[in-house]
Structures are given as structure tokens and as C-alpha cells.
């Protein structure tokens, strides 16, 4: 249940990235064929698997395809406008010509009627107020050293606030020491005033779940160095790391491998001590990064009993954090992060 997309390589032509064929064929220790099939996630695809068995029930062969399901309400990405009938027809022709396993489907009226009351329940759920922002809260994928604005100079307030929430949940789940989140995984600003469940899911819109990784201080430093090398302030801002429980400075004038300096652990007591490169720490992060995505290559090497999928959706992590905030006059108060909360304390760049 890894939510892996398996399918033909031509899915890359439309922005999907299958990690293997559907089904993927391997052999067990006895040399017998084993068919691995998974239809992605969340009903995005329906898997069609055809298997042949011998008289003893052993697999002889298997073939199949994942049918990628999309609605017929296709819109332009540029301005969200509808396509004409002819344009939709051309899309269908291209799907057929490229032999893509994509199915354009229309909603079933009877099913829509059944789902109507559940849709209303969902609307009530997303409109539920879970807190009140005392000030405008900004997003920024990465710090901008030349900025006089805190959101620019030290990075996104909501990025750092979520890193703090991730660490708190990690402490509750497995006594985490640090948390790690990429800046691009936190998406929208939140204005001063009420914050709803729907806003939280817009803030954290991806299918990311909480992961525990047991890493040495050296592996944590190496992870940050790798990302900073790929990022370097202008290459991939979305990969920029935000952590809670760990401070560092960045000197981009230094050579590769020496850009992250002054790594310091912030203890629950508020005391600060140098990161021990030989000690094993518990890191709370998301499965997207744990897979090595976004240039977080080192995280993908943490395997076996050194990793555990907690399975909690990262939006739920933030909802849990808001639920634990102090109540004043019946309102859950959400404050900007303190300057000491920010992981990157200083960036130097000529």
C-alpha cells in the first residue's frame, strides 16, 4: 500500500511518473513468477489485472493496465476556462493515438444523488473554524537574505509554523528531536481572522504523511548540504529546508559540503547545544521527502528499522496543532513564529 503508480512509460508524456510496469514481474526464491500490481491511490485509477494459473494454482503469466480516470470537465490551466467540444474531441484523439490508459468519464447521475448528502457534510466540515490568526501569516518558499521583511529574510512564517507543528506531533508520536519540511509543501498565506479546515487543506494540499526517520547528526547535515547545493537560492526554491528543533547558518560563499554551519539543537527546555554528528536522532518528516524527492536523496537511504510510516496526513498534523493552541475568549489563538523558532538564522551570500 505504498500508493505507487505502476503503468506504461508513455504516461510520462502527460506528466505522470510510473515507477514500473503494470504489473511488474519478478520471481520468488524458487524462480516462480510474481506479479506486483497496484492501482495508484484514492481511486485515481482502476487496475485491470489478467492472470493465468496452472492446475496447481501457480501463476503462469499476468498482464494488465491501470485505467487512469479523469472527468470530462477539462479546463485550461492558464485561465480555468472551459474547453470547446472540438477541443475535447482532439484530446480524446490524442489519448487514443498515444495509446494512453486514460479514460474520460462522466458523473453518474444516480451516484451524484447518493453522494449529495455526504457532499453537504463535507462542506460543513471544511467550513468549520479551527483557529484565529492574530496577524496575517505569510508563505515564502525560502529566505531572501537581502530582504528587510522577516518573511523574506528568515523565510515563510507558515512554513516555519508547520515545521513546529510537525515536531510537536513527532514528539507525541515517537519522541522526535527534529522536524523537516520543504518550503514548497506549504502553499497559501492566511489572512488575519478565522482559519477553517478548508483553508488548512489548501495550505497543505498534497497527499503527504508523517514519517519517522532515525538518522545520525552527520546524515542530517549531509541532507541539508545536498539540498542547499541543488537549491543555492535560485535553482529550486521549493526544496528549501525548514526545520524545528535545529538552527543553522548558511554561507553560500563556501564550497559544496561546507555551506551549512553552526548546527545547534534546541532542546525542549530552551537550552541550545551543538549537533552531535555521531549521535542518532529521531526526525519527523513527510513521506515525499523520505522517498528522496526534492533533492532529499540521503533520506531515501534510511531503510529497515530506521524508518517508520506513521501514516498521519500532514494536514491533520497541522489541525492537531491548532487544536492544542490556547483558547482566549473562546477562540484558538494562532500566532506568528518567534524569531528563535526559525531554523535558518542567517544567510550569507555575496
Q: How much beta, percentage-wise? A: 25-35%
Largest sheet: 5 strands, mixed
- Name of the top-level CATH class of the largest domain: Alpha Beta
Going by CATH, what is the homologous superfamily of the largest domain? 5'-Nucleotidase, C-terminal domain
Oligomer: single chain
- Please provide the ordered H/E string of secondary-structure elements: EEEEHEHEHHEEHEHEEEEEHHEHEEE
- Based on CA atoms alone, the radius of gyration comes out at 23 Å
Q: Could you estimate the helical fraction of the residues in percent? A: 25-40%
CATH topology group of the largest domain: 5'-nucleotidase,  domain 2
Per CATH, which architecture of the largest domain?
Answer: Alpha-Beta Complex
List how many beta strands DSSP finds. Answer: 18
Uncertain segments? none
Count of distinct structural domains = 2
User: Distance N terminus to C terminus?
Assistant: 47 Å
Task: Strand order, main sheet: write it out.
Answer: 10-7-14-9-15
Question: What's the gist of this structure?
Answer:
The protein has 350 residues and is of the alpha+beta class. It has helices at residues 85-97, 109-126, 150-153, 157-174, 197-203, 217-231, 287-290, 297-300, 314-323, and strands at residues 24-27, 33-36, 45-53, 59-71, 102-105, 129-133, 178-182, 193-196, 209-216, 241-244, 246-251, 260-266, 272-274, 280-286, 307-313, 327-328, 331-334, 344-348. The chain is globular.
Could you describe the 3D structure shown?
With 350 residues, this protein is α+β, with helices and mostly antiparallel strands. The protein has 2 domains: 9-105, no CATH class; 131-348, 5'-Nucleotidase, C-terminal domain (5'-nucleotidase,  domain 2, Alpha-Beta Complex). The protein has 9 helices and 18 strands. It has helices at residues 85-97, 109-126, 150-153, 157-174, 197-203, 217-231, 287-290, 297-300, 314-323, and strands at residues 24-27, 33-36, 45-53, 59-71, 102-105, 129-133, 178-182, 193-196, 209-216, 241-244, 246-251, 260-266, 272-274, 280-286, 307-313, 327-328, 331-334, 344-348. Strands 10-7-14-9-15 form a 5-stranded mixed β-sheet, sandwiched between helices. A 4-stranded mixed β-sheet has the order 8-6-17-16. β12 (260-266) and β13 (272-274) form a beta hairpin. α4 (157-174) packs across α9 (314-323).
Amino acid at each position: 500500500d505504498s500508493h505507487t503508480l505502476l503503468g506504461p512509460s508513455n504516461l510520462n508524456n502527460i506528466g505522470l511518473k510510473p515507477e514500473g510496469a503494470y504489473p511488474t514481474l519478478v520471481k520468488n526464491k524458487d524462480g516462480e513468477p510474481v506479479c506486483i500490481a497496484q492501482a495508484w491511490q484514492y481511486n485515481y485509477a482502476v487496475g485491470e489485472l489478467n492472470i493465468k494459473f496452472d492446475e496447481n494454482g501457480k501463476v503462469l503469466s499476468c498482464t494488465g493496465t491501470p485505467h487512469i480516470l479523469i472527468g470530462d470537465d477539462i479546463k485550461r490551466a492558464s485561465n480555468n476556462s472551459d474547453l470547446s467540444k472540438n477541443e475535447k474531441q482532439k484530446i480524446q484523439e490524442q489519448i487514443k493515438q498515444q495509446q494512453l490508459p486514460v479514460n474520460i468519464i462522466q458523473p453518474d447521475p444516480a451516484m451524484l444523488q447518493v453522494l449529495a448528502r455526504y457532499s453537504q457534510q463535507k462542506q460543513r466540515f471544511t467550513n468549520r473554524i479551527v483557529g484565529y490568526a492574530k496577524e496575517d501569516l505569510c508563505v515564502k518558499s525560502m529566505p531572501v537574505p537581502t530582504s528587510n521583511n522577516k518573511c523574506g529574510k528568515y523565510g515563510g512564517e507558515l512554513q516555519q509554523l508547520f515545521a513546529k507543528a510537525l515536531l510537536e506531533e513527532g514528539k507525541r508520536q515517537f519522541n522526535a528531536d527534529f522536524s523537516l519540511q520543504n518550503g514548497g509543501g506549504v502553499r497559501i498565506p492566511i489572512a488575519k481572522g478565522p482559519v477553517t479546515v478548508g483553508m488548512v487543506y489548501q495550505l497543505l494540499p498534497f497527499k503527504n504523511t508523517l514519517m519517522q526517520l532515525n538518522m545520525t547528526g552527520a546524515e542530517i547535515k549531509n541532507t541539508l548540504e545536498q539540498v542547499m547545493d541543488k537549491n543555492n537560492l535560485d535553482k529550486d526554491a521549493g526544496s528549501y529546508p525548514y526545520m524545528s528543533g535545529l538552527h543553522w547558518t548558511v554561507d553560500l560563499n563556501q564550497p559544496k559540503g561546507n555551506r551549512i554551519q553552526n548546527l545547534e539543537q534546541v532542546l525542549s527546555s530552551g537550552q541550545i547545544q551543538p549537533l552531535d554528528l555521531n549521535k542518532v536522532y529521531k526526525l519527523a518528516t513527510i513521506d515525499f521527502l523520505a522517498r528522496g524527492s526534492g533533492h532529499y536523496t540521503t533520506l531515501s537511504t534510511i531503510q529497515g528499522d530506521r524508518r517508520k510510516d506513521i501514516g498521519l496526513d500532514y494536514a491533520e498534523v497541522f489541525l492537531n496543532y491548532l487544536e492544542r493552541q490556547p483558547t482566549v475568549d473562546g477562540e484558538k489563538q494562532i500566532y506568528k513564529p518567534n524569531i528563535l523558532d526559525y531554523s535558518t538564522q542567517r544567510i550569507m551570500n555575496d
